[in-house]
Amino acid sequence: MTERASGETDLIKLYSQRILALTTEMPLTERLAAPDATVRRRAPLCGSTVTVDVTVDDGRVTGYGQDVKACALGQAAASIVGGAVIGRDHAELSRARDQLRAMLTENGPVPDAPFEEFEVLQAAREYRNRHASILLAIEAATQAVEEAQARQSASA
Fold first, then answer.
1. Phi then psi for 45, rounded to 5 degrees?
2. Which of 55, 93, 138, 149 is deepest in the core (most CB within 10 A)?
């Protein structure tokens, strides 16, 4: 098998059926009409973008909407975030973001519940050029909650 064929086989394995299913089952894809904060993040290397809207009450996410223009890995990650984000606070989102980053770059463990489904993306560790796209949704959600809380504190 040539090196190119081997690489293509690895890439096909990376896009497992579960990852592809996550891309078609993405929750919360409607933008919010009156968000407390909106954050758009872009991965410069691949051009993937994620825009998230949040509403926050008493420090917890009560509403979430996302617009995702990303590769299958970025879409799968956004799907996982969308499925777990409601009810989470900034600390939980920050921990999930940091754990996902460590899982990808340092062979760290799978993130804690309710973000354990990121396990499906472990195969992407070897594809450093995809890490930024995978991290977009959790980074945007974390930043949006932080911004929403800051605005709420400033107006209190």
1. -65, -40
2. 138
Q: How far apart are CA 123 and CA 113, in angstroms?
A: 19
Amino acid in the structure at residue 1 = M
Nearest CA to 66 out of 152, 141, 156 is that of: 141
pLDDT band at 127 (very low <50, low <70, confident <90, very high): confident
Residues β-bridged to residue 56: 61
pLDDT of residue 40: 97
State how far the Cα of 82 lies from the Cα of 21, in Å rounded to an integer: 14
**In angstroms, rounded to a whole number, what is the distance separating the alpha carbons of residues 46 and 100?**
19
Phi/psi at 68 (nearest 5 deg)?
-120, 125
Helix (H/G/I), strand (E/B), else coil: 39: strand
DSSP 8-class letter at 111: P
Amino acid found at 111: P
Average pLDDT on 105-131 reads: 93
Note if the bond before 114 is cis, omega within 30 degrees.
yes
